[in-house]
Amino acid sequence: MDKFMRAAIDEAIKGKEEGGIPIGSVIVYQNEIIGRGHNRRVQSGSPILHGEMDAFENAGRRSASVYRQCTLYTTLSPCSMCSGAILLYEIPKIIIGENQTFIGEEQLLKRRGVELEVLQDPECIQLMQDFIIESPELWNEDIGTE
Amino acid sequence: MDKFMRAAIDEAIKGKEEGGIPIGSVIVYQNEIIGRGHNRRVQSGSPILHGEMDAFENAGRRSASVYRQCTLYTTLSPCSMCSGAILLYEIPKIIIGENQTFIGEEQLLKRRGVELEVLQDPECIQLMQDFIIESPELWNEDIGTE
């Protein structure tokens, strides 16, 4: 497996081990990870720290010229908020672990010229399937549904 | 002036006084502010804590049924990221201080059924005009442009 998707999955597993939602993300610039993160709704009581947002936060302040050469890896199809951050910073390429358990704003991203690749990775799918069965209320809270 | 837009402007002024970007926001539920915030790019070195995002963060974890009855007040037209958070949590109504110095994802929000009201408030416009003249590089960083 691509080492960067492996790193994103490792972040998701770290989140799970902390009792959180198992979604992870890394941001890669010039073949190096500049930001990594995982969903922190449970751990930090945060409604905004999805995996992708946590990776952006941990990458810190970067110039537009850096963001425009980055690839973002995420274990799950990015929701509206995370897709909005991707559009704000004009990240050109997103590698998505899977979109079978949840599909975010992929059509919007594509229309705006973002390149998407969906791996349908069995480990990513299993992590989310197990989590949704175990904690449906927490999952619904995270995606803003009842 | 509406007391909630006044509170959002007060947040923007607080941000300015801290040496930050003067954009503020409050989230109102049943006629009470449940979250308030301002842009913290400078103060926290954060690329994700725009005014609206900081207000979401400070509102903490809320159920979908609460978000769907909220109004978000923001001193400036919301960017892609903040608009994405608004869509994720299905905030039905946004009151915008001004969209003369920057226009965000208003068309997308409208297409998705969000009600928008733009006040073109002179104080909001002045805050941003002064800031953009004083700190153009910081402003460009915040909106992901060169």
Automatic annotation (TrEMBL), chains A, B:
The keyword Transmembrane does not apply. One of its GO terms (biological process) is nucleobase-containing small molecule metabolic process. Transmembrane segments: none annotated. GO terms for molecular function: cytosine deaminase activity; diaminohydroxyphosphoribosylaminopyrimidine deaminase activity; metal ion binding. GO terms for cellular component: cytoplasm. Keywords: Cytoplasm, Hydrolase, Metal-binding, Zinc. InterPro entries: CMP_dCMP_dom (IPR002125), Cytidine_deaminase-like (IPR016193). Pathway: Pyrimidine metabolism. Its main location: cytoplasm. It is found in: Cytoplasm. Residues 1-116 form the CMP/dCMP-type deaminase domain. Its EC number is 3.5.4.1. Homodimer. This is Cytosine deaminase. The lineage of its organism: Bacteria, Pseudomonadati, Pseudomonadota, Gammaproteobacteria, Alteromonadales.
